[in-house]
Amino acid sequence: MIWGIVTLLFAFFLGPLAKKTTHRLGLSGLYIASAASFLIALLELDSPLYYHFVPQTFALFDLSFVADTLSLIFCVLITFIGAIVTAYSAYYIEPEEAPRFTTLINFFSLSMVGLVLSNNLLGLFIFWEFTSICSYFLISFDGTNEKARKSAWQSLLITSFGGLCLLCGLLILGGIGGTYDLLQMRIPIEHPWLGTTLILIFLGVFTKSAQFPFHFWLPNAMTAPSPASAFLHSATMVKAGVFLLLRLSPFLAEHAYWGKILIPTGFITAGLASILLLFEKDLKRIFAYTTIAALGLIVYMIGKNNASAYYLAVVWIVTHALYKAPLFLLAGNIEHYSGSRDVTTLSQLYPRMKGSLLVAALSIFSLLGLPPVLSSHAKGDFFQLLGSSPFEFALMILIFSTTGSVAITLLSIFLKSNSEEKVEGRFFDDDDDPALLWLPPAALAVISFMIGLRYGPFTEFLRETLGQIFPFDFSDIGLTQSNHTLATFSTAAVMLLAVFFAAVSYRLRKFTFNNPKVNLPNFDKIWNFLFNGLLKTSKIFFDKIQNNRIELYSLTFFVFLLYLITQIQGLEELGLPLLSLKFPQGVTPFEIALIAAMLIASTMAIKAESNLSALVVLGVIGFGIAYIYLVNSAPDLALTQFLIESLTLILLVLTFKHLPKIPYRVENLHSRRLYLVISIFMGLCAGTLTFLAGSSFRPQTLTRYFGEKSLNLAHGHNVVNVTIVDFRGFDTLGEITVLILAAVGVVSLLNRKKGAVAK
Amino acid sequence: MNSLIFSVMVRYLRPILGVLALWLLLRGHNAPGGGFVAGLIAASAVILQVLSRGWQSLPIILRENLFELAGVGLAISAFSGTLSMILGNPFMTGRWTSFGGIKFGTPVLFDIGVFIVVFAVVILCAGFLLKEEEEENSQIGENK
């Protein structure tokens, strides 16, 4: 299993270098190797394996990973579909954009693998957000397209809203369970906060897995390049939410809200998406709606919380990932060939796109659920295990027949002869249907066939291993003799209804095409209303708070700081050393003179009549401080202070002409008094606190500790440097990160000013 | 700045400052010095050169790729911390080894990263102002 991750990391670092098609195919080879190692790990797994990669970094946040059946099934799916997608994009994505695309895809696969392997809830959350960010960048991959940018914003806002809810939920859950480690977590099911937690977590899951009422971002996300859609928005990322549900189900499924929320949501989502897809004209959006329907079905299954439902959910996750990814890639093919994805205008693709027709034919088997593909068996299991309830039966007939109608639509755009309406857009004469664009999806579809042929061993494996994850007995699920009447009836019903729905949706598309003013159920409008409302509200607040006057900003800051200082506990006791003030021992006359000079310089700085003189006297103070460091045996500090003083001088000279002229006066007498009072208080506070820090709590133990351990533990004589780079190295790492961020800020500010000058 | 004295002085000061920076960087673990100070000194050398001979006299990496340079520094520092993780210790445990009597450890690598970050960031901020100044001066020259 480790090798799977190492291979992925390897691919991640090689990704940006791979520009040629052959190199990118090599990357796909790495993915296959990774998938193979995950598959071997999955088949050889006896019991869940736990890894602690970062031992004891923080008390709570111990980044640990778990490899069990559930996570490894996902890993195999992610890496295998990743391989197909990388191979496909080797040709599909232009060489100039390849590094960006491959890096994003690699980063996504790593985060997704990290997500499914996480054993720590916070680690899981971090990877969860990584996948959202990747999704954002991939949806807006074509940055010149305004629609793409808008959709990307929409998906980012929705998924990060869900992400925040999820974070709150996970934090509360960690609080209830006492730890974020899933292995050690024990959740008392009657805990009063558990209901809130569940709702928060569900919000995260529903936004990620595009459940009603957040489903609308997924069809809009189809502006992403087709390989990305196939990978993120159908096969893997949108399943992250479902995965989280499966992961948490042993802890939370007993709670009353579990089924009460999940079952209706899944039901509504699946039903609504099945109906909405009939209206769509865009091939990829149609596929997106079938994805939503499939996700809704999985959520519904998980909500039922029994052995057969979990079994069906896992089977359906695998089935769906394997047949939906080739469909998206096929849509990419068609778009690449004809420049269009509109099923109402596309026609007669067959004579030229022979390879793609093969993919289409294989996918049609999956969509209609014809034997011997995997989905036919999965569908059979669905009817057999759930067919007894009329509601569920109706829902499944609806989902499977509308999905089947997509197959008929797909077939029609290949075979329909329509000589009058020419397909608009570009035609590639030299590469009609290159093998690199149809072989990868075909391979995926063939896998679907192969697992379908070996369905018995596949389900046997699931029956044996799912018991490790879910507290149920899976040993006899799906083994009972199939009800032939029901199976035959349901298959026939699905077939007939698929034809019926295909006809209906053909009519509907024609109708909406002819009557563009007819309003369809449109969630984008609600979204736009909410989004614009939010922007307007925030503008009102923004105008109130951000008035671009630096005096008011600093005033707010200082007043709040003063308030905080007055709130310090035991402030009166801290003041005691001030009363017993004694003249310090061993101060040389030169030092006294220096301090006096510095005091005079500070007074002069306040009274300075020009920028230059203020600068010079401030320099005196700085160098005075440096000298005091030097005589008090802090040569490192002195050295740094000297250099900083000199550099500040240079920088200030450079910005000289931009500074406001001194004397700078506030005209209003009233506010001048206020400023004076606040300044005096601020100065007093700063002075007192500095003095107290030096006198009352002197951490002698720390000085001694660093002094003693510096040479033994860190092999350094210079205690200051050892502290910076070793004992407090993590702080320094943070500081240099902040330094770079500050530089980003400086450069962007200066650039902006430059632009303003140019205007 | 078109002063002959200044440019001659910079010509000699530059290598001295460079060596001084390296010296401070490497001795930092046992004597006053360290990555931060060394970075400041090295950056001052570069700023002096810019003042005397203009922005264009710098190698391209210091003109165009400063952010990348800073990123490399940060990566080196972070990498020095993760090295101990691979060896099974907590993040940022100092690991030491010696090559022919000279001891070398991850904190030195860390300090080198700090050096690069400070160097790049100071040039970035100061250099931006210098460039602005230079452009304005050249515009004034053209207008005349």
Report on this structure.
The complex is a heterodimer of chains A (759) and B (144). Chain A has 759 residues and is an all-alpha fold. Chain A has a two-stranded antiparallel ribbon. About 1% of the residues of chain A have low confidence. In chain A, helix 9 packs antiparallel against helix 13 and helix 15 packs across helix 17. Helices cover 73% and strands 1% of the residues of chain A. Chain B has 144 residues and is mainly alpha-helical. Helix content of chain B is 74%, strand content 6%. Chain B contains five helices and two strands; from the N terminus they run ααααββα. In chain B, strands 1-2 form a two-stranded antiparallel ribbon. In chain B, a hairpin with a 2-residue loop joins strand 1 and strand 2. In chain B, helix 1 packs antiparallel against helix 2, helix 2 packs parallel to helix 5 and helix 4 runs antiparallel to helix 5. The longest helix of chain B is centred in the last third of the chain and has 38 residues. Chain B is elongated and about 65 Å long. The model of chain B has no long low-confidence stretch (mean pLDDT 80). Classes of the chains: A mainly alpha (759), B mainly alpha (144). The interface between A and B is large, with 44 and 52 residues.
